[in-house]
Amino acid sequence: MNRILLVTPDRDESEWLSDELSSFGKVTRTIDSLNFFIPIWNSVEVNIVIFMESAIQGDEAFLSTIKKVKSEGPEAQIMFIHHRDEDALIYDLQNEKVICLHYKDLGPGVVEDLFWQRQDIDTEASDSTDIVTEFHDQEAMISAAVPKENEVEKIKGSNEPDDHIDNSQRSKGKESHAYSHRLKLEEIIGKYVKTENQSEMMDAVEQIIKEETRKPKIIKKIEKVTEVVEVERYKVFPNKFIVVGSLYPSAGSTFTSIALTRVLNFLGVMSALVESPINTPELYHLLDGSRTAPSEYQFVTDQIIRDGRVLKREYEWTAGNTTWYPSNPSMSKHTDWKYEHTYKLVSSIKNPIVIYDVSHHWGHQSVEEICCDADDIIFVVDPFPSKFGRPDTARNTAILKQLKDTGKSIYLIGNRNIPTRNKHKKEWIDSLSSLPEGIPMCFLPNIPFQEVIEAIWEGRLVQDHPEYLSQLVAACYPMLKKMVPASYPLQHLKNKKQGLFSRLFRTGD
Questions:
Q1: What is the pTM of this model?
Q2: In 51-131, which ranges are continuous DSSP H helix?
Q3: To which H or E segment does residue 48 belong?
Q4: pLDDT digits (tens, 9 = 90+) for 20-76
Q5: CA 35/CA 139 separation, integer angstroms
Q6: For residues 448 and 170, what is the distance between their CA atoms, to the nearest angstrom?
């Protein structure tokens, strides 16, 4: 009888799994988190562990726990039941031979069947190592393994050197896995004929037969993995955390953050936009939250402040490939928000790319500290010359310079690229040279104010308007190449889009 350890904070899940697996094993212990998992796992004798995603607080900590369990008890079978789409964590868990099952695939008998299948695979792999014992007769073993007469020259009983083997056969044999094994056997048999050491010869032949009989299964597994990688490699993104903020108030960090997520959405890349709780809440209303938010939606920031962690994730606020995490508009600001809160919030998000909008609050302690964890930092400016002489602009510039000096990747985006007389635009661009990254990565177009206002009143994002989205894709393309893996197939768009897109992706590389 299998002994099972469940890790879930949900009593209903625990009871359902206990009933579901009653004929397969016995649930000996249920715990609600990973906080004391290792000492509990070491103290109970179990061979099955089932983790529910609701008990997981951070991907890295969870993966580290799995690796520790596998190193100390490789025979243990582990299942991870999740609600996320396939991502880097799922890929890593599968490499650790963890059974990953999506909630939507749960059903009567499914969990038990998956465990039986895994046990059958493990048993089959174990049996394959003992396959040589089927060769009871030594002569039968040799005859089954030696090369056929019409393929290579028989050498048993011959003391002549290997040069007597046809070179054309050898050349052909380099392209044949089976032939290479036969060449090894030739050498072994030849050695046996010369030394008459039967025991040594049989040990060597046994090893070759093990390799030969095991190889087809290994090839099959490699082919399967290759096929999965070819299909899924662009869905498994390395996690990327990007902080976006304005150099001064109203430069457009929120507009830029939304633009980046919607361009990623257009390209089929999953991302999340988080509005920092230290900002004045605005994202909820920009998204027309009273109409578009899920009816049972709970603000993640409120859960972290209230409960210290994210407890309920049943209702995510999504739009295509974008997940929204706005601050609660009923609260002006979370004045007690700290780095620890930000870390828990960002760590709880499953999307591979997370954008954190900090507005102009670069000097807030939580922002300064979370920037040290960021992969990229983007600061936004616009063409208003009067904004560059402000005291807060100078303070924020100094902070960004310090971050760059620590080795952080800093990027500058120019917002509201208004066509002006060449002289004024040149002066604006020249003025940026004093900033931490004086050369803008890209310039976002200036969308007419009337269009922006009408979109807000109509409860839609102006960044999704086909005309402006195409302009944003073109403008963000240099930044986009920094955000997605170098292997991401951007070039496929040129066959699907005409005009601007075809020109853009023909030249970009």
A1: 0.53
A2: 59-72, 88-95, 110-128
A3: strand 48-52
A4: 888 888 888 888 888 778 878 877 788 899 999 888 888 888 998 999 888 887 788
A5: 60
A6: 74
